[in-house]
Amino acid sequence: MARRRIGFWPRVAVVLVKPVMTGWTRRTWRGTEHLRHPGGMILVPNHISHADPLVAAHFIYDSGRWPQFLGKASVFRVPLIGWILHRCRQIPVERGTVDAVKSLDALVDALGKGGAVVIYPEGTTTREPALWPMKGKTGAARLALATGAPVVPVAMWGPERLFDPRNNRLSLRPRIPVTVVAGPPVDLSRWTGATPTKAVLEEMTDEIMLRLRDLLAEIRQESPPPLWERPGRAQRPGAAA
Q1: CA-atom Rg of the chain in angstroms
Q2: Share of the chain above pLDDT 70, in %
Q3: What is the DSSP track for 156-177?
Q4: Residue 136 to residue 202: CA distance in whole angstroms
């Protein structure tokens, strides 16, 4: 979407937030060309810090797209905040209710209008001690199967220096280095037209997460571990490695 067409309230958000991020971070952006093709797309970043949505939004905006994040529906019901989020075209998500179907409809509609929808497939900041990705949840895979929209991995390293979730330490020093790299869309073609069974969605999700993990490994220049399983969850047969 051309920046001149994003609308008044999104432009206000840019005016307020971008100067802060420009002074707070020293940025290395790569792979922005993967966000520039026309049409809707599903962006799947790794989640390493409560600060990384700001970094992701900055990267996506600089790539020429307007980011549409998913947010808890309860936040959208907060006076003023919810009003602003709606006008900035963010997407409320109901969880565990009959209204969850409406959330999926909203996502499908956003993609149909050419939106860049951001889904954190891990669902929360990673619990892996070295901040490698965890096994993902199946929402991004389900949406990709329903719409055929490309799934673009977006790997980030550096937001943990802004706010480290392991010790809840916030750093306000200027020019903190952050790196964001978008890869080409994940090849999910072998599941085209498949029935969205649990097994199919989990296979697609593992493919997405492995691509995201390997992209992060390129940034970190380290050998990645297997996708981390949350403690207490049963290990699935043939877990991704």
Answers
A1: 17
A2: 91
A3: EESHHHHEETTTTEE---S-EE
A4: 8
pLDDT averaged over every residue in the chain: 91
Q: What is the pLDDT of residues 8-67, one digit of tens each?
A: 999 999 999 999 999 999 999 999 999 998 899 999 999 999 999 999 999 999 999 999
Beta bridge mates, 71? 92
* 210 confidence band (pLDDT: 50, 70, 90): very high
pTM of the predicted protein model: 0.91
The count of other CB atoms within 10 Å of the CB of residue 112 is 12
In single-letter form, the type of residue at position 206 comes to: D
CA distance 152 to 30: 13
User: How far apart are the C-alpha atoms of 128 and 188, rounded to whole Å?
Assistant: 26
HEC profile of 64-96: CCCEEEEEEHHHHCCCCHHHHHHHCCCEEECCC
Query: Residue 145 in contact with residue 194, Cβ under 8 Å?
Result: yes
Token pair of 237 as six digits: 């047969």
Q: What are phi and psi of 58, to 5 degrees?
A: -60, -45
